[in-house]
């Protein structure tokens, strides 16, 4: 956390040249690299310089690889500023027009033409390239390599984010034996290995885990001396936020730590994808200081905020719920975007639970009327309404 | 960067000291019948009985409460035990041909728990002697010990061997007296030629010392030869040329006669008359169950009274009763064939050993069977059996569940004892227990403890678990609530008229008429004497205690837990048919209401709240709530997940799947064998097939691997209801409390219902009985549903009061039996799942503290109990502690409500799944688990409360030690109101104080934990 705001000094000039494009119009201005300010100030500035004060904008910039990436929060704003070399090229769009425009495109990258083409002919690109990066708010981390700075190079600590998706984790573990160096010489010790990856599963899709990788730790706890069943139980208990430290069977793709800016980015083509997908979420510019964008060091705060622990509490029955729920105040500040999804989901769950309940109660109880009422409330589709009803009825408590 | 470390667990010396005063783990005593007994011995002087087992254990029993246990270093079967009468010393022979000497050794005087113990005796192995095998012979079978004889003088031990040799060892050093060895050749020399006929005499089958003349022994060889051998002069006094294969020998008291029993089911009486060296014919020879071929009489005893009593095992007609386990008692015209349900291991009689007396006058026959101990009173005409005060066969029908009740009131205790006495059969006698080594001088236990066991045959047995001896009190049968065959019993009684005159003895009966009768859950309220018993076929029976016999019809109420869910058909067993006619019920617990769950799946959880007259019960399909006072179903709720098909299949089809998997594994074995053969002859044409087969095999015989996938809602059996909790607490808001019911399921769901109980007004029980009230009904309103995100099965739910202590049981608060719960501060609820322990605040269910056991340790919670631990040193200090047994068989103790780990003890082997599943905790820090189908191991986690045998024995008949047994019950029965624990008096530990919680194994806590604390 202490590194968060360290600015890469070697190549930083004091000012960042900004070229901003909205429609056919360009604006040029400069920003102080060391003091970029906050995103909302920046957003206001853009609206000001383009003289479009009431237009909702999507802000994007071209990164060093030529990918069009969004700027929508302090983190990626700072990232954009810090990586501008020296020109920061911005592309603004009206929000309503801009659907699915952020895309990585290997073709364009190969051709090394920057994204202007994409922006100018959005329809054409969409047809051409089915791989589409969705809107920034839909970004979610799937996996990441963490703690490269503290782990031996032969080990890899992988975090799998199970939450919020239907994909199975998709891997199996087995017993085996591994050779350890001890003072007495080499010694064979029992060990746990990944035995199988399910095609299409999360583990396989990340490309960070492979069959025969030796499992060393599960969420920071060494598995040495533990039985296969114990390790299975530990992994399942941590499955919503699983961090496994492995010794990859294939040691050729290891991250080379000593290399400077961006050198390691090509080391694992697959993992760079996943890296890109999570970095809208890197907090407090943690990545800014990192040599490569695929390597993520999460602040402790984010690492531990496993949403899995939000046990779902459904209130029912009380005709007039006297307690006001201000409950949602506790939820991960670093990931505010999860909230609407989660709440929507839970609201529907609760609705179904209510209906089950009304069916399930034996002799018609007094409360059934009120339950139906609650049912109606929570089933209203408008998200605003749902949100409100959640708070009033206290349907959801995030713990 | 992620190294967000917390302080290591501060080893606060003061806290460590308190922990030592509170917690200590010890396995104290084994209750029940030793598993697989293999040897029996009796010391008539000290009146002690010893039993050896196949696992190498030796147990000594005396008067009720006197027990010693020893375990050989090797778990080899004990084949024989011998007491050195009156010496407090015994010899054991193991299956590996070693002899071990055990002694009861007085421990030095010491102070235990403030009470001075003098001359406490323990059993120790002192010496061992290994018989060398003959060189050159691979197995030592020739020198394998078959029989042992200890001379009355106690200084010489004779050993008969397989090779027919008799060796003499000197005691107590167990040194071989070379010059005394009698080899078979020596005997054969003196045999007449026609008897010798070149054959070996066979192993030594019996060695018996002459009752009157010391130094003369009777040696019986397998071939039938019996030799009266003089040890001092080393020559054969007399030879008895028996022709039948010999099984055993016994002297008549005078020494003028001896009896031999034979392989053909007969026995012979031989006269020992001086002068004649060769005896060719016995005085008499009988085959009692002839004339058709009979099985061998394995052991015979001849005891004298005014007319001799013959006792022998076996000898049954081979064709018709060859499979029976019998022992016959004969005297004059009286003839009884005791018909046991398990194999006879050995037997002895308790009789007069004085040489002055004319007769043996046996008073009792003690028979050790494979599954129980039976004692027959030989003094009372008709030879009735004597109830055993210990060594009870817990498993007379397989134990299916158990339940422990502490601090039972004397009134209920007496009523139970009376009910138990009333049911004892007329064949029981009330004579004194014949094995009475020592006296139990310990004061009676300070509180009465009940252990209830549920059995496969639908019975519930009540045991006195207050002391070292687990004594049966009362047996409740639930079978008569249902329609069963009564004709069978009558037939059995008629059967007795036939020959041989069989009499069924003993209570071990592993064959259950109907497995559906099996008891799954028990709950007893010791204040209102209400009992709930729930079984395999979805039956829930509410019973009340009645001292009078009663004939009545039991009310039946059917509860459909599926609640019209469509698409489900139950493929399991049918429900039990309730009896339609009024049935006679003996004094004791008599059924009031029978609730039948539909579908009739096994009941998985049950809870009783007698103050509200409610019983909650759950199966794999849902749960229900029933008001047994008004006979009114309050609630039925289906917990079934729509995708769960397994829940509907019932137990039968699961057996099928087991069969299937067995078949598969057999196929796999066969396949691998076949392919192994193939490899020898490889032809080019078969190579492709070979490769294919190998591939298929590889797929089938994959290495053990485990799938890593979070639990999902549609896992099978997710709807199984695991636990209930009744509590008077705050569910709706923070100001009004009232009755609530909590239910937890296999998929991590918790349902909390607010109950409207007429007469119970915001937690205060008013006087019942008003006419207006009785017409009102109990109502249940769903208050909250909690879905634990990790979806692990909910093992236990417990509501804690404002001080963080568990709420008292029904009636405890209203009858001032415990301090009233704190209703002013906020309550909380502890939800223990298989993976996590978590405390939530009430009424807003938000997490306060938690401990992620599985995530940290990789073990799963199996059993959980809230236990009050009292300090062994400070009189009035006690702490509520959460005891948690995991699937690794270890006990984790956590403080409440902070959930900080305190200590961990290894208790049960992790492979012992039935042991872990059977574990039950008492409320004061003890527990029981099954170490075999027939034995409970009792253990103590408390430094203060432990019940363990501490006895002494009058050693050498000179030093008279006091024999006593102490139950260190401490002060556990001090009223709780006087117990104040300063540490816990603060209302729930402030969350921040939990920040110093660390886990030894991890060193790292997740920040999410902190977040919880900071909210």
TrEMBL record, chain A:
It comes from the Eukaryota. Residues 265-276 have a biased composition (Low complexity). The keyword Cell membrane applies. The keyword Ribonucleoprotein does not apply. It is found in: Cell junction, Tight junction; Cell membrane; Cytoplasm. SUPFAM superfamilies: CAD & PB1 domains, PDZ domain-like. SMART domains: PB1, PDZ. Residues 255-276, 315-337, 363-399 are annotated as: Disordered. CDD domains: PB1_Par6, PDZ_Par6-like. One of its GO terms (biological process) is establishment or maintenance of cell polarity. Keywords: Cell cycle, Cell division, Cell junction, Cell membrane, Cytoplasm, Membrane, Tight junction. Residues 157-250 form the PDZ domain. GO terms for cellular component: apical plasma membrane; bicellular tight junction; cell cortex; nucleus. Residues 363-381 have a biased composition (Polar residues). Residues 15-95 form the PB1 domain. Pfam families: PB1 (PF00564), PDZ (PF00595). Belongs to the PAR6 family. This is Par-6 partitioning defective 6 homolog beta (C. elegans). The lineage of its organism: Eukaryota, Metazoa, Chordata, Craniata, Vertebrata.
From TrEMBL, chain B:
WD repeats lie at residues 450-464. The keyword Cell inner membrane does not apply. Keywords: Exocytosis, Repeat, WD repeat. The keyword Nucleotide-binding does not apply. Residues 286-384 form the Lethal giant larvae homologue domain. Coiled coil: none annotated. One of its GO terms (biological process) is exocytosis. Belongs to the WD repeat L(2)GL family. This is LLGL scribble cell polarity complex component 1. The lineage of its organism: Eukaryota, Metazoa, Chordata, Craniata, Vertebrata.
